[in-house]
Amino acid sequence: MTKKKIVVLTGAGMSVExxxxxxxxxxxxxxxxxxxKVATHEGWEADPELVTNFYNMLRKKCWGVKPNKGHExxxxxxxxxxxxxxxxxxxxxxxxxxxxKVIHLHGELMKVCSSRNVDDPRYIQLLTPDNCEIAPGTRxxxxxLLRPYIVFFGEAVPNITIAAEEVQQADILxxxxxxxxxxxxxxxxxxxxxxxxxxxxxxxxxxxxxxxxQIMKGASEGMQELMGLLEA
Length: 232
Prior knowledge:
Elements: E1 5-10, H1 13-16, E2 29-30, E3 33-34, H2 35-38, H3 41-46, H4 48-63, H5 69-76, E4 82-87, H6 93-97, E5 102-104, E6 107-114, E7 125-126, E8 146-150, H7 160-168, E9 172-176, E10 198-201, E11 212-215, H8 219-231
Helix pairs in contact: 5-8
C-alpha cells in the first residue's frame, strides 16, 4: 500500500529547544551580530573575513548541540509515511535526527561554496566536525573566495520551486516553529491541495487562515500531541 505523503515545513522555532538562536530575531541580531553584517551579500562584500569567522563560530556551536525530541519525532514519521522536510533552518539537526529527505531553503551551514557561482556543485564542499573552519581568504576551485553556502537576505531561494512541488503532492502538511511571515517560504501553504489536513505547531498565536489546526506548544511537546492525533 502506498504511504501517505507528509510535508513538514520547519522554521527557527524547531531548533530553539536545541539551543540555537533564531536566524531572524526581532532585534535584528543573530548570535549578537547584526544580521546586515553577517547574512547579506553587502555584508559579505564589505568584510568577508568577518562573515567567514562568524560562520566558523556557528558551525562549532552547531556541532555542540543535539536534535531535540521534535526533530526525532519528525524523523519517526518516516516509519509510516513518505516524509519530506522543508526547512528554513541552516543547521543539520533534521539530518542528525534521521530524516532522510530534507530540502534546505536558506542554505546549509555545514557547506561552503564558490562566491562567484554559489550553486556550482563542483565547488560546494561539505565540512566535517573535525574540519569545520575555513581560513579567511581560502579560495574555491574557480579562484573565488570560499563563502558560506547560505542564502543571504535579498538573494534568490533556489529550492523554493522544488519545495512547492513537494507541497502540491502532500496528503498532510505540518508546519513547525515558523511565524509564516517570511517569504517565499510562507507562500508554500498556497500550494496545498484543497481540503488536506494542515497542522501548525507554535506556542504563539499565528493567523494562518481557516482550515489550519494550531497546536500552541513548542516543537517537542507539539509533535508529541500531533503523533497522537495522527494515530487516532
